[in-house]
Design goal:
Blueprint: E1 7-13, H1 20-28, E2 37-44, H2 50-57, E3 64-70, H3 78-93, E4 99-102, E5 107-109, H4 113-121, E6 126-133, H5 140-159, E7 178-181, H6 182-188, H7 198-208, E8 213-223, H8 235-243, E9 249-251, H9 253-269, H10 276-286, H11 290-298, H12 303-310, E10 320-322, H13 323-341
Length: 342
Amino acid sequence: MLDDAPVVIGVPARNEEAMLPGLLAALAALAVDRSALDVCLYLDDCRDGSAALLARLAPTLPFRLTVAQGGAGAAPNAGAARRAAMALGLQRLGGAEGLIFTTDADSKPRRDWIGAGRNALREAEVVAGRIVRSHAAADPRASRVEYYYDRLHRYRRSIDPVGWEARDTHHFSGGANIAIRASAYRLLGGFLPLPSGEDARLLDDASRAGLRVRRDAAMVVETSSRREGRIAGGLAGLLRALDHGEQPRMADPRGAAWQWRAQAAARRGFAMMDRADARSALGARLGLSADHILGVARDCPNGEAFAMRVVPAPPVDWGTVSLTEAEDILTALECRDREVAA
């Protein structure tokens, strides 16, 4: 069914006249039936020549292009703009099932992006692909941060494995590279109109709803390494901070490790929620009553939703540590688990 499912791509843009030609060229080169492809661009209070550029290029493109303008006078809001771009995509689909991809205007999906997304969506309802930065070699500290988070996510899946995760996985959850089944997007109610972080929030909400969220490195988008971003708290801000010598602080990975082990236990225990002893044992581990455990379980469609909803914050506030300290702590956690497994 997914082989024949229609594909739409939703892209928000805010004053991206200089970057749009690169995006459109990458989309025109996709290894897909481009005559059946819909690209929906939402221009979020654009004050540059983006609209005129798109009007000029539209007749030359090998796919259908829908452009809408909005957000006049509004403060930048990444979530609202992406939500609007995706709404255009849903309109193109009508009520039919289909696949919705989203990326950013300063990004370039690789030629096999749609094919890799289709393959991944056979295993899950939502897929977050890998995001690579152009000229990443010029930002070794940022690359080190990204590598650490990749290690951390792989560690998560080593202690809380799920059948739908990609073998070659990663940590990215950015809107520059997400694919989702239209039915799942409708179920979740779409991206929330948040000033930033709408992408990670959608993935969290999907897991809490019991949907399978896959992080698949085979689905790749290249994005810019520019320092002037369109929103606060984005990649550009991180790169500027590192340029200015700021030392990144990371959440101590021991807190995340406690949560992931607890989620693994909850996932295993969901099938035994009819047993009082199982509820009591899980409650004791999480610091919750057996009745609370049962109440959460009754509202969950499956073990994924239960694991994401029932596990509380870690009982110890581990605080933040330097990147070097975080790397060392993660190494100790990895070694300990290898020794236990042996």
